[in-house]
Amino acid sequence: MRAGEKTAVIKAAVGKTPVSRSASLVAVLTAAFLTAGVPDRLTAQDTTAGKVVYGKWCAGCHGDQGDGKGSAANYMLPRPRDFTGAIYKIRTTASGQLPTDADLMRVIDEGLPGSAMPAWKARLSESERRNVTAYLKTFSAFFKDTSQHIVPMKFSSEPSGGAQAIQIGRQFYDSIHCRKCHGDQGRGDGPSAYDLKDDPGQPIFAADLHQAWRFRGGMSTTEIYRRLQTGLDGTPMPSFADLIDKKFLTDEQLWHLAQYVRSLSPEKPPEVRDVIHARQVAGALPQSPDDSTWNRVDSYYFPLVGQVVRKSRWFEPAVGAIWVQALHNDKAVVLRLTWDDHTQSPDSSWRKFTKRVLETMAGDDTGTVAPESWPDQVAVQFPTKVPQGTERPYFLMGSNSDPAYQWRWTSAPRRAVTGLAHGIERFDTLSHGDAGPGQVTAQATFDHGQWRVVLTRALATADSANELQFAISRAIPIAFFAWDGSNAERDSRMAVSTWYFLALDQPTPPGTFVSPVIAMAVTLGLGMLVVARAQRRKNGSAA
Amino acid sequence: MRTLSSVAAVGAGLLIWVAGGPSFTSAPSGAAGGTVSGKVKFVGKAPANPEIDMSEEAKCAAKYKTKPHEEIVTVNANGTLANVLVYVKSGLPADAKYPTPTTPVVIDQQGCMYHPRVFGIMVNQPLQIKNSDPLLHNIKAMAKKNRPFNISQPAAGMTTNRTFSAVEVMLPFECNVHGWMHAFAAVLPHPFFSTTGTDGSFTITGLPPGTYTIEAWHEKYGTQDATVTVAAGPKTQDFTFTAK
What we know:
The structure holds 2 protein chains of 2 kinds.
Chain A: H1 3-13, H2 18-36, H3 47-62, H4 101-110, H5 126-137, H6 163-175, H7 179-182, H8 221-230, H9 241-245, H10 251-263, E1 275-280, E2 300-303, E3 305-306, E4 321-328, E5 332-340, H11 351-361, E6 377-382, E7 404-411, E8 414-421, E9 427-429, E10 441-446, E11 450-458, E12 476-483, E13 495-496, E14 500-504, H12 510-542
Parallel strand pairs in A: 1-4, 1-14
Antiparallel strand pairs in A: 2-4, 3-13, 4-5, 5-11, 6-7, 6-12, 7-8, 8-9, 10-11, 12-13, 12-14
Helix pairs in contact in A: 3-5, 4-5, 6-10, 8-10
Chain B: H1 2-19, E1 34-43, H2 58-61, E2 85-90, E3 105-110, E4 113-115, E5 118-122, E6 127-131, E7 137-141, E8 149-153, E9 159-162, E10 168-174, E11 182-188, E12 193-195, E13 201-207, E14 210-218, E15 222-230, E16 234-236, E17 239-242
Parallel strand pairs in B: 1-16, 1-17, 3-6, 5-11
Antiparallel strand pairs in B: 1-13, 2-12, 2-14, 3-4, 6-9, 7-8, 7-10, 10-11, 14-15
């Protein structure tokens, strides 16, 4: 396949999928907004106009009465905000104080990353957003109580960071016991994490501090510092402002803690790239999840979403993303899958959490399910053959007539199998005798809230009717599924991706690497020559 | 900010007290009035309280000779029930005002438990939250009629003062680091309340003559009301909770 064809295939592949659905919803909503003809001279803080906006855009989740019990609410965790209590997570005010109008507007404008609350800035006019802010305040008597203080806290500006600041931050991470909930390495796997509830008593995860782009209040160091100051009311996350008053730490040290937390995540939110490039290596492939070779292999990020197509649906999967690395040699292909998970399931101490999740998410879709100690799982999906055109099995585990070929790994028993999925309901394991070439070998490690699983299979197998034969330089469709057993995930209650591609790259001719180096050296040499001549001339004229 | 203002309020209160300010010249109305006292009996088999797994907190676990249990239902040796808050629910004159005590009610976090677990406090009376454990507690006040808050105390000796401006029965507290830690406060506009302890008795003093609804509240067994007519002198009113 030529390069142009490959791109076309890839573009066609990013069709109607759960991931793109939210994007198309955005498009529809934006179109509706553009054609609605919004009057732009509404009185500011007009609650009557705000009610109209609220009824149209907000009530579906937050309910007509503002109690957070809209028709879609039962599918969400965390649940939509109940406005009647006036308890808000993202504020600039002290713990227990009401938010300012600007605080409320900001959440409406920017949304709450990592939750179902979208950003409305591009969809509603400023007056609409202002009016709806005024309207949602009418749901709580607290906003009418003039004795309530609504004073933004005085925040200092960020001191300089760097390695030493981060080190100080880490010391305070330990001394104020952040690890109790967020875990030693910050992945929300601390010893108290299994028992966390929000105000309505629903299960809540401690934030994974390695995924700052999912922080509700924003991912900047400044925002993290503010959350440490204000706490997230309604959740287990307390305010640490008193610690400064009590001289337990200084304001600057609190900043350093924020800088440390920020340093755990990449500078920018990870970007999705559609094609995983698997480099060809000459020798043996790394089999251990912590082989140092992996540090030098490009990592691809893929977001996962809940499986909401087939019953029982699952709207709030615990695994939000998976990172994939791939290599091959002339005999085999190896994938390392890395994902954050609060628990190494099955874990009996998390049974209570599992039970709460099932109770909270119970509904027409999920029905009544008794909690069990389910394992963590991951599945990698391919078609049975490398497709010639854009045809691939149905992304959701194929169908009876067009099955998908899968590798499935479970944490207990700790093993990988291969098989054919005929839709979500049916998975037929393929047998390979004793370590036949169709076998997938697995090595896995669970490390402070993160799974790293290495899966290896021969490029070619005997069963070419059912098992994908890996070919070099072809766009091989690939998709991923993940289950967190402690989050009550099993069978159709899972996280899914859309189809992406795996490309086993040809070995790079040595010249490809050498020629740029030579070109750079030549350019550098010529440049220095020019500079040297100019200097000489300058010196000459000065003399 | 709130801490500061509460501290200021305490300070101001002390000044007034020292100076014999006008708001404190009269004792709470009917200080010499009637007394309602009694016992809260418990009938039936007490349910077992859940055992607490303190393995993650060795410094707390070390304070207990036997495995600690949650104190949801504490039945005393004499067959009475502890941690029942008894208070005047209604019957006081609507316009009656009672001075706000400046002495704080102290809730101590010790051995990864709240002491006391159940208590009464007056509106705007300071609540001193104290940590006697050398580890992190967060204190989450899950108020509905007052503003809720959630603050942290990561070291022994830390104290924080807070006040509640509205009547609220009951206002739950919890620690999220230690999911077993629960406490309950009745925020009341008057001083007529009492919590049962190890002998299961309560005493409410200084009630002006009148007819009152007295309520007994327990976190598991709910509430029981009794109508009591008080004249000068003592009056007995017992309550009985039955195992479910």
